Amino acid sequence: MRTIFLALSLATLLFTCSFTIHAQSKDASSAQWISEEQFIPINGLEQWITINGVRSKPVILFLHGGPGSVMSPYSDNLYKELEKDFIIVNWDQRGAGRTFGQQAPDELTPSYLQANPLTVEQMASDGIQVSEYLIKHLGKRKIILFGTSWGSVLGVTMATKRPDLYYAYVGHSQLVTPDDDLSLYNRVYKLAKQNNDQGSLKILDDLGIPPYDKARAVGKLFRVVKKYEKANSTPAPSNWFVEAQSYNNPKDSLNRELGDDYSFVNFVGDKQLGVKSMRATINFLQNSLQFKIPVYFIQGEYDLLTPKEKTTLYFNKLQAPKKEYFLLPTAAHGFNAEVLEAQYSVFKRISGKL
């Protein structure tokens, strides 16, 4: 086994009407270009997939975070340049974006939430079926798997269950034991005290010590966490998370918003609403330690939600044919320019060995 631990300094979180399949050449002179966006049947549910790039290039399946924070409306802003070297695939997961819109209720009632639970097993099964579809549809042997934040839970699960489908797994802001709100609370409380941040201290004092049994309480904690991550990291360019024109409409916006709420409640759980917590079932320090494919972690120095201490511990325990860890000094939990450069560097490393 070859293990490399790196700290990089590279250059200078996120929706239905009827949609038709869009598949056309971006360059009329290049039949090699593929540009498709459509619903495909995955485990009995029509799910939204976009595919862009040169047909001969390696495929990267992006697993978005949140859960519920789809990347398809923003992919062109972030990954247009990567389409020269890779086929970029975005998938609106079950409960998110346009996929959520296929079965979205008029409102998120407790009865709807209880009748339509999300589970890690179901969503990982969806992801595996998406991967199988891509391999067959695009005529590939395998694909590259990338998961960010919540998507890293699916990424680890998919990669360890079906390594035959993937060249490598790349985890960004890797979740390890996401049910540990106490450590998160203590860390951010200390920061608020150091900064004499009375507003945040009042929120935290009113919340009290975790664990919490309401999703709203976890959401309030996360908002304070994001405040401090933003203050200590380099932000993403302001135009990155502006929706593409085809997604900038009331129906898509409503489905993104409701899907985000629906997915988050399922992720953290809510006793009053009768919703079980997906994150309570996740502990990668006790399982998912054996990988049969190369593993790469991209970690922000100022990430509080998935801190470097936890991802390093998991990285050191997991077994893989090759593993590399990239620590980014200007990044927190989300994306910025340094994260995208690290992604591109890792993807090129992987594709160079194919």
From TrEMBL:
It is an enzyme of class 3 (hydrolase). It comes from the Bacteria. Transmembrane segments: none annotated. Its EC number is 3.4.11.5. Residues 1-23 form the signal peptide. It is found in: Cytoplasm. Keywords: Aminopeptidase, Cytoplasm, Hydrolase, Protease, Signal. SUPFAM superfamilies: alpha/beta-Hydrolases. Pfam families: Abhydrolase_1. One of its GO terms (molecular function) is aminopeptidase activity. It catalyses: Release of N-terminal proline from a peptide. Its main location: cytoplasm. One of its GO terms (cellular component) is cytoplasm. One of its GO terms (biological process) is proteolysis. Residues 58-334 form the AB hydrolase-1 domain. Belongs to the peptidase S33 family. This is Proline iminopeptidase. It comes from Chitinophaga rupis.
